[in-house]
Hints:
2 copies of one chain form a homodimer.
Chain A: E1 7-10, H1 22-29, E2 36-39, E3 45-46, E4 49-50, E5 64-67, H2 71-84, E6 88-91, H3 101-116, E7 120-122, E8 129-131, E9 159-163, H4 166-178, E10 185-188, H5 197-206, E11 212-217, H6 223-235, E12 240-244, H7 249-258, H8 266-275, E13 279-280, H9 284-294, E14 305-309, H10 312-324, H11 334-343, E15 353-354, H12 364-377, E16 381-387, H13 396-409, E17 414-419, H14 423-432, E18 435-436, H15 440-458, H16 479-488, E19 496-499, H17 502-512, E20 516-521, E21 534-538, H18 541-558, E22 566-571, E23 577-586, E24 590-597, H19 600-603, E25 608-612, H20 617-625, H21 644-661, E26 665-675, E27 682-684, E28 688-691
Parallel strand pairs in A: 1-2, 1-5, 5-6, 6-7, 9-10, 9-11, 11-12, 12-13, 14-15, 14-16, 16-17, 17-18
Antiparallel strand pairs in A: 3-4, 8-10, 19-22, 20-21, 20-22, 23-24, 23-26, 24-25, 26-27, 26-28
Amino acid sequence: MLSPRSVAVIGASDDPTRIGGRPLSYMISRGFAGPVWPVNPKRDRVQGLAAFPDVDALPGVPDAAIVAVPGALAEAAVEALGRRGCPAAIVFTAGYAEVDEAGQAAQARLVSIARGHGMRLLGPNCLGLFNAPLGYFPIFTASFENGWPAEPLPGRGRVGIASQSGAYGTHLFGAARNRGIATPVVVTTGNEAEVTLGDVIGWMAEDDGIEVIAAYSEGVREGPRFLEALEAARRARKPVVMMKVGRSALGAHAARSHTASIAGDDAVTGAVLEEFGVHRARNTEEMLDVAYAATPRIYPARNTLGVVSISGGAGVMISDAAEEQAMPMPPMPEDAQERLRVLIPYCNPANPVDCTAQVFNDMTLVGAFARAMVEDGGYTSLIAFFTQVGASPSLAAKLRAQLNAVRADHPDRLWVLSVLAPPERVREYEADGYLVFEDPSRAVVALAAQGRFGAAFARPPRAAVPLPTVTLPAEAPDEAGAKRLLEEAGLPAVPEAATAGVEEAVEAARRIGFPVVMKLLSPDILHKSEVGGVLLGVADEAAVRAGHARLMANAAANAPSARVTGILVARQVSGAVEVALGIARDPVFGPVAMVGLGGVFIEVLRDVALRRCPVDVTEAEAMIRSLRGFPLLDGARGRPRADVPALARALSALSAFAAAAGERLASVDVNPVLVLPEGEGAFAADAVIELG
Amino acid sequence: MLSPRSVAVIGASDDPTRIGGRPLSYMISRGFAGPVWPVNPKRDRVQGLAAFPDVDALPGVPDAAIVAVPGALAEAAVEALGRRGCPAAIVFTAGYAEVDEAGQAAQARLVSIARGHGMRLLGPNCLGLFNAPLGYFPIFTASFENGWPAEPLPGRGRVGIASQSGAYGTHLFGAARNRGIATPVVVTTGNEAEVTLGDVIGWMAEDDGIEVIAAYSEGVREGPRFLEALEAARRARKPVVMMKVGRSALGAHAARSHTASIAGDDAVTGAVLEEFGVHRARNTEEMLDVAYAATPRIYPARNTLGVVSISGGAGVMISDAAEEQAMPMPPMPEDAQERLRVLIPYCNPANPVDCTAQVFNDMTLVGAFARAMVEDGGYTSLIAFFTQVGASPSLAAKLRAQLNAVRADHPDRLWVLSVLAPPERVREYEADGYLVFEDPSRAVVALAAQGRFGAAFARPPRAAVPLPTVTLPAEAPDEAGAKRLLEEAGLPAVPEAATAGVEEAVEAARRIGFPVVMKLLSPDILHKSEVGGVLLGVADEAAVRAGHARLMANAAANAPSARVTGILVARQVSGAVEVALGIARDPVFGPVAMVGLGGVFIEVLRDVALRRCPVDVTEAEAMIRSLRGFPLLDGARGRPRADVPALARALSALSAFAAAAGERLASVDVNPVLVLPEGEGAFAADAVIELG
């Protein structure tokens, strides 16, 4: 698909501006090395090449074929290609699943034909792809008509673009070119009937011609291949920058109107991207900024930022941005600060380092300051803010010489030059090895992303989380049954006993210790409090007896048809932080674990963390710590610190349970989990398991 | 200061690259119309102009004078200028408050000399200013050495830049120029010893040569003039875009190291900017995007966004951005959608409107779609996303003709073209009247800002809030006294009585109704619960008697030296939402009112809204509605809706109290305010007033 030695164009046009003409024209003018075979029943020659009336007449089996014929003919063309053994078809033809149900059926036929012949199929309804170094341009974009050179592709880096949208994919490619970023390979996937975005990312992860992957998606359609591809990219140390649109309610609605996508939850996709260290870009510019800053291929796992500036104000601005990006800006060592203060008496040598207008008189000071920051400060990322000095006829050359001397000794750092300079001067600085950003705040976002890539690359592959053996019951268990299942999987519940009569309840309460909570047990009642099925603070034996009678009366009155299987007696825990754990099944990515603090945090603020199941204890703790409400578990408001490790173990155990339980498990809701002070544990106080 | 007819340069240098030489060189080459008088005791001529040995020798009184002499000589120069009646001095000289205490003293002397002569003084330690249309360049930036034309200033719009930082101010000016935005007037304020940022914004609000104001600050030093200036700009319908750095803890720390600024709280400044409809930009690029989009001077008070696109994906991305910016994207009317569906069968005609690749065959469809959006959809802002089509040799001219025909009939809309095109093509589109953004998400941010400007311009000036008569007691009142003071100002308290003995307490409780709350009254105890001074749920007369004894015992044990003036008996309210109201005194902007939801919202999430006092009831309600936790007052979690109007009245009354109370009022903390269900009111349950 990406690197064929021969290409057929089914529906080739002699007009180089038509859909069936453009790929041919581009491949001829960009010198594709192998044979290109136009197929056109009405012409002997197309754009100067010998043409063939149909697929069967081709002089050989093409490694790839473009299908650019009208809807009615596409199926036959794909069938003919498959019969001849062509391994890859790129289908431009539209009018399939994006249109109506008949189109969906036609698309399903296309896929079944391709699969029947073991042929990969890109599209249908796609714009195509290109691999510029090979002169391979099976794409009908008008981009190459605009007078921009396409080959050799100018610019730095080797960024592959994988985009569901054709129009947006070429927009991105054009914008990258304008920024001086090379994009040798661009693939648009259209309807993704067979080849998906995951396939393309996977190919790029393995392709030596690609160093950075920029992806665009309106909704991931296929989970396993996508996950495999992200892991392959991580192992290959290739950063993935991805724009996944539809994150807002309005956007998600627009996405549904636009594609027939059955995209899973946007938040789940976001969690998956985070898991693999993918940078989720919020807009095109951030996408390009991060990809651009990835081109030096320096990914510091422990990234720190040092700033040397001639503007105190810019230093403050950069500090604001660094804090937002959680990028550390540690101060310079005290002795180095002392030395700098000798060089420039009123400078600020901490970090940001302000070397003041003093440097206009003596540019060697810039070199001394920059060297101190690299060698004494040890920063992995550096921003030198020199604004218009970067273009000053009298000063720029001196500045460049000073910085280059330091850079030459430390090429392993990420160097950003924040200057205002004309494009040709910017290209010179880039050739020296600097990333050039006019806006220093944008530089911070891009640098922080490189550190996150580094951290993701440095992580060992996800350790296999040991899964318990789970045997789900025939029907949804009651609360006691649910808790027993989870307890067997390693998620402890509050000490409790399912009791069958009033004397058994009294006995259990005595054993567990007062006060206790009493709850109705019934497989038919999901929300006990709604039927008066929960009693709190039951203080003594008499109260247990009275409570038993009351619960039975409430059940009879409010849920007369429910089967009551007994009464649950449990210790009433106080002083705990209430947390909710849960499992939901995502249509694309399978079971997903959720954690959030109880009360307003989930319901009003939607403050939850998500991760695919299973998660190990380390990941589980990271999820918990990422909550905005985490301070409540960490000793805020004068509370003792809660037992976060125990909560992390519970979350990990729940996720392993869900991963082991299989597709019949629809959801789990463990709410609340009572998290006691450090060392005292975390216990499920309620659990609901739903089966599908 | 901004438009003199004659200029003196004290410390003029013959070298056009020195600090005392650059302004002269710039004014000569840019043709300042009036006389320019160099002062230099060592030369007869400076840069070809007749020079004078000192200020007294000048042939006239200059309208403005540049002071570019070394520190020791600056004071004498300012004094001499003042004596001759020069009304404005621009002091480049550094070594003042930014350095040390001696510098602070020297700076105070400078100000006192200037004020003594009624002379305005810019700086010291400033880079200067320029007013390009006059050829007036009292500035020592190197920017004009870089081969960029400075006069006539190219570009669109008339954006004035007011910047505390010289280096950053010129960075902004250079970046604006690179973007094709004209900045005829730039003023840098340096140490702001006399002229402040507020002065400069005020001048620009009145200057007909300025349409948009871009300001940069590390901390506002002077409140009243700044407020006056923002209100003047609002009245003149001139948008203010401001970058106030130091919003993060790290940034604020860096700002303190950088300047001797006594900036008030960053959050308070943020609230002030919001009050006047100032757009607070997060980075340079957003600053320029918003200023650029302001240049057509179209500020729709009710701004809606319509999107016409050839990429469904871009439409989704724009929808995401619009939701984040709270910019409405209402759908097209149904009948218009029907009509569009006839034109292009598989288009998506709602909004974003996707007119599909069909338009490549027939560009008149773009015109039809765009016209429908303007005339039927009635959108005030439009984004047309056409990516590389905007540069296509075969299509761009047709696209332009189609859009221009619609635009010509509706020049009152904000039209954005999101295209990828070379700079010269972009300039053509701009000349047609479009704003051109490569990144459509950035366009949304800039367009949404224009709507907020419009809404701020449309607001009537802040109505005077009637202030109560407040007589503060000689020393801080106890809780009962505090509540009485606030109740007199219109903030009702929970029904309660201050009682002097146990029988009076029983009598009061009977009158108020059980259960009651009992609290110690003492002017010496601020936090009652810490000494065991609060009893909740006191259920009957016996409990009142027992409680009385217990409170007295707790006071004796835990606060033996406190004077106990009695016991407060109050109704215990249940079913209320707890809210905190407060007043703090900002060193720059005076008393500030705060509202936040109780518990985790304030302590963990810092979810509060701030506004200068006084606020009227409408503003108060807007503050309450802006809280992230507002859903809790609005019926979330199955609660009844709370009495938000009553809470707004309470907040407004508290703010009026603070505004009337004068400088002795240090702070007020009304926590909790119990907000009952709709129609039932909001009552202060505790109040602490601190006096300074």
